[in-house]
Amino acid sequence: MRGFLDRLYNAAGYAAAFFMVVTLLMVVAGIADRALAFGWRGTDMYAGYAMAACGFLALAHTFKRGEHIRVTLLLQASSARVKRLLEIWSLFAATMLSGALAFYAIRLTYQSWDFHDISTGNDATPLWIPQIGMAIGATVLFIALLDDLVLELRGKRVVHSSGEMLRNE
């Protein structure tokens, strides 16, 4: 199971990187269109869709690598028992909130598909297509947080530190 979950988080990270490149390509295409009048429509909308997919798909991968911002001032000043209770409480709250986000993202995507909702821009893209990235990213984040909550409850969680504080001046 651990191998599957790690592959899931890595796959989401690779998908986020792919959509980051797509964002770049759409921005460059938009610039080229303005300069050379190719007549390409919707490049700015597609760049926005790709940027949203990139952001949501990167959440779980970033979380599992310890790269999310954590305020550890209170944790550092706490005893081991209090620190563990705060970690469990934080992970539980984050899991519940991300579960709600995933549920409503999936629901929004389904409703956009069911109502045949399309973009109001000149691209007329069915909105369920770009919303899939948000729904998948939110769901994988929920799985990652639930995974860490279970590991913390079992006493097997390893908190990764990014080392970013070491690079600050």
UniProtKB/TrEMBL annotation:
Where does the secretion signal sit in this chain? Answer: none
Task: Please tell me where this protein is predominantly located.
Answer: membrane
Record-given protein name: TRAP transporter small permease protein
- Keyword line: Cell inner membrane, Cell membrane, Membrane, Transmembrane, Transmembrane helix, Transport
Q: How does it sit in the membrane?
A: Multi-pass membrane protein
As for subcellular location, the record says: Cell inner membrane
- The regions listed as transmembrane in this protein's record are 12-31, 46-64, 85-107, 127-146
UniProt domain Tripartite ATP-independent periplasmic transporters DctQ component: residue ranges: 24-154
The UniProt similarity line reads: Belongs to the TRAP transporter small permease family.
Q: Which organism is it from?
A: Noviherbaspirillum suwonense
Task: Check the record and name the Pfam families matching this protein.
Answer: DctQ
Q: What does this protein's UniProt record list under function?
A: Part of the tripartite ATP-independent periplasmic (TRAP) transport system.
* Subunit composition and interactions: The complex comprises the extracytoplasmic solute receptor protein and the two transmembrane proteins.
